[in-house]
Amino acid sequence: MTTEISQADATTFAIVDELKARFGEANLVVQPTLTGMPVVWVAREQLIEVMRFVQQVNKPFVMLYDLHGVDERLRMHRRGLPPADFTVFYQLMSLERNSELMIKVALHEDDLRVPTLCNVYLNANWYEREVFDMFGIDFAGHPHLSRMLMPPTWHGHPLRKDYPARATEFDPYTLTMEGQDREQEALRFDPEDWGMKRQSGDTDYMFLNLGPNHPSVHGVFRIALQLDGEEVVDCVPDIGYHHRGAEKMAERQSWHSYIPYTDRIDYTGGVMNNLPYILAVEKLAGISVTSRAETIRVMMAEMFRINSHLLFLGTFLQDLGAMSPVFYTFSDRQRAYHVIEAITGFRMHPAWFRIGGVAHDLPRGWDRLVREFLDWMPPRLDEYERAMMDNSIVRERTVGIATHTTAEALTWGVTGPNLRATGLKYDLRKAKPYSGYERFDFDIPVGTNGDVFDRGMMRIEEMRQSLRIIEQCLKNMPEGDYKADHPLTTPPPRDKMLQHIETLITHFLQVSWGPVLKANESFQMIEATKGLNSYYLTSDGNTMSYRTRIRTPSFAHLQHIPAVINGGFVPDLIAHLGSIDFVMADVDR
Amino acid sequence: MSYKLTRIDPDAPQNSQYPVGERRVVDDPMDDQVHRNVFMGKLENIMHNVVNWGRKNSLWPYNFGLSCCYVEMTTAFTAPHDIARFGSEVLRASPRQADVMVISGTCFVKMAPIIQQLYDQMLEPKWVISMGSCANSGGMYDIYSVVQGVDKFLPIDVYIPGCPPRPEAFLQGLQLLQDSIQQERRPLTWVVGDQGVYKAEMPSQREKRRDERIAVTELRSPDEV
Ligand code: SF4
């Protein structure tokens, strides 16, 4: 076992030697962390070169997985790191190495400027705009550096440490008639801004504003279309109508009390969202949980995967014009909620996982409920497949529509079922198992064409696999504790608290103040309902996180839209939007 | 019963704050009528009842959602909860055709002017339900990008607590709105009489049900399904 781990480590960290060989040891600072990947600081001047190198190295880092910043000015524990007021970090993924790599660049307050990465990794575009919006860092050479999440009229950069977090620290919100006109005017789409022509030859283009409120954009998402008749010549997605400041929120909630906020990131994913956060916290705390807790977590996460996919299926088919499927899938969801509610006590946002385990043990009789659900679903799924996906109208609307290849998907950071629909067999639960997924027997469904139809089918197949996993949980639920026996488990087991005053005080501090975690950085990625979701936590030895970066799959998926849809028709766009499976909270956080 | 009078001011200056128009609490306008002329008063009363009965049983909701709460709202529209029982199954995708707007989810600063515009596009008679803690007060999001309660600019008829409220709670909210519509006094014609909108001040459910809540002494144990 140990040799296996060190081998995996050796391949993961091999890139460090390759970088040292190429750029010289003196030019790099390797930061030891708990992230499980090499974290390397490079000089700003070398950034682009380093990026090109890792992109072209043998077994390349094909995907820019994440890019964001940190305001380092108030960080106490940074011994051994290059001096920095702000940091920009770039996280890359290599499928062949099955590993990640993080590159960091230190910036000084007076010179907040880095070269843009858009020419190396295309999908850096939106991430850099977000960093500009949140930190005010300038990306030299960026094609369109403007605000991303905040309104264009906004002042200040919210993720800076000197920016107040609470709405109640500002004047109460008011809206006047003038103010409304002004804000609306600021949101007006100007084609010239985006380098679009109003006419060409003998065609006058039409500009159509879809959203932020439109039945087929699943919430508050806006996309401006440049149309030649029915054909989409170009389009510009506009996000930020659903920005709830979840990352800033993490800097003021204790490690424990932040859990409910994670539920609301991908709000159809329920406790699935707790998982990456909790696992990352447990790495910081050094807790290893019992196998019962792990299995309960897997079971509930898979319940929510099914629930989310059912919602997807109903709304996806509704976007295609089929009115009835949503009624069927929602009655299935009701059954799923019946199980979820009996176990966790809540429907959509149970916030049920805890640091070191879960909130309470499985109730008596849970197995009967799960059994009923497992018996109910398979015939329903067969019926959906027959009645909808074999339906000739659905096929006409979806087969060969909005296709993209595996290579394109990787370039744009597309993950999850949308990536697997292109034929790539990559599922994190198999590639890098977490929370005990290595103990389960299940298949990875893959598509062939990467079109709308495949993306729909993927979800049906994934639900079948999730049912298999839940079945194994049911049959082999380990005995034991549902919480780890560790001083940082929060809240500590109740029977341990009632022994003497010492234990009571510890319990009190742990619940009121929250656990204090050692200064370090940790990271956990999971295969969430919509793709790869991860939490990158920086602890400064405090009761709350210093910086929490939440990487969500839908953000990348929306950035990908123009590349897929340009040249297609408006109805194809609607079908594509339905097939991506996004919720805006998972985009804007 | 006291009423809240709203009068639209078409000439409101540009710097006036939303919600625009005069608002104050008054007595039931029908009492006056009945005193002046018993017969006409009674007739008008019957007319109000009939019109209100029609209105409250065919509330067309606007298909509009902001975040998580919207999922539970949609759940109320589907088969297991079946909102058609209350006459509200006709979802409209355009605000111009809708009667009631449900603010289901978080109201973001970037979204607020758009919500206001959509509200303005709805035709009278119109109502607004605020669904979920976020819409009621900002909820757990006391953060720079969230408006702390949609009533900072919209007039709200019913607040539904919860994060998210269950679909059943949403249906109850809808019924409470129906109850309040039944008591309304809106102009029966645009040519004669007072053009103000009188909405009844409905009792708070929290107070109404306090005794019931306190009477509960045994809660179900979570150890059993
Ligand atoms: S009240 Fe809760 S469930 Fe509703 S939108 Fe807000 S966070 Fe989501």
UniProtKB/TrEMBL annotation, chain A:
Residues 40-168 form the NADH:ubiquinone oxidoreductase 30kDa subunit domain. Its main location: membrane. Its EC number is 7.1.1.-. The keyword Nuclease does not apply. It catalyses: a quinone + NADH + 5 H(+)(in) = a quinol + NAD(+) + 4 H(+)(out). Transmembrane segments: none annotated. It comes from the Bacteria. It is found in: Cell inner membrane; Cell membrane. Residues 204-589 are annotated as: NADH dehydrogenase I subunit D. One of its GO terms (molecular function) is NADH dehydrogenase (quinone) (non-electrogenic) activity. One of its GO terms (biological process) is respiratory electron transport chain. Keywords: Cell membrane, Membrane, Multifunctional enzyme, NAD, Oxidoreductase, Quinone, Translocase, Transport, Ubiquinone. Residues 319-589 form the NADH-quinone oxidoreductase subunit D domain. GO terms for cellular component: NADH dehydrogenase complex; plasma membrane. It holds the Pfam family Complex1_30kDa. Residues 1-180 are annotated as: NADH dehydrogenase I subunit C. It is a peripheral membrane protein. NDH-1 is composed of 13 different subunits. Subunits NuoB, CD, E, F, and G constitute the peripheral sector of the complex. In the C-terminal section; belongs to the complex I 49 kDa subunit family. PANTHER family: NADH-QUINONE OXIDOREDUCTASE SUBUNIT C_D, NADH-UBIQUINONE OXIDOREDUCTASE 49 KDA SUBUNIT. NDH-1 shuttles electrons from NADH, via FMN and iron-sulfur (Fe-S) centers, to quinones in the respiratory chain. The immediate electron acceptor for the enzyme in this species is believed to be ubiquinone. Couples the redox reaction to proton translocation (for every two electrons transferred, four hydrogen ions are translocated across the cytoplasmic membrane), and thus conserves the redox energy in a proton gradient. This is NADH-quinone oxidoreductase subunit C/D. The gene is nuoC.
Automatic annotation (TrEMBL), chain B:
This is NADH-quinone oxidoreductase subunit B. Keywords: 4Fe-4S, Cell membrane, Iron, Iron-sulfur, Membrane, Metal-binding, NAD, Oxidoreductase, Quinone, Translocase, Transport, Ubiquinone. SUPFAM superfamilies: HydA/Nqo6-like. One of its GO terms (biological process) is aerobic respiration. HAMAP family: NDH1_NuoB. Residues 204-225 have a biased composition (Basic and acidic residues). Residues 68-175 form the NADH:ubiquinone oxidoreductase-like 20kDa subunit domain. It is a peripheral membrane protein. It is found in: Cell membrane. GO terms for molecular function: 4 iron, 4 sulfur cluster binding; iron ion binding; NADH dehydrogenase (quinone) (non-electrogenic) activity; NADH dehydrogenase (ubiquinone) activity; quinone binding. Its EC number is 7.1.1.-. It catalyses: a quinone + NADH + 5 H(+)(in) = a quinol + NAD(+) + 4 H(+)(out). [4Fe-4S] cluster binds at C68, C69, C134, C163. InterPro entries: NADH_UbQ_OxRdtase-like_20kDa (IPR006137), NADH_UQ_OxRdtase_20Kd_su (IPR006138). Belongs to the complex I 20 kDa subunit family. It comes from Kushneria phyllosphaerae. Its cofactor is [4Fe-4S] cluster. GO terms for cellular component: plasma membrane; respiratory chain complex I. PROSITE patterns: COMPLEX1_20K. NDH-1 is composed of 14 different subunits. Subunits NuoB, C, D, E, F, and G constitute the peripheral sector of the complex. It holds the Pfam family Oxidored_q6. Binds 1 [4Fe-4S] cluster. Residues 202-225 are annotated as: Disordered.
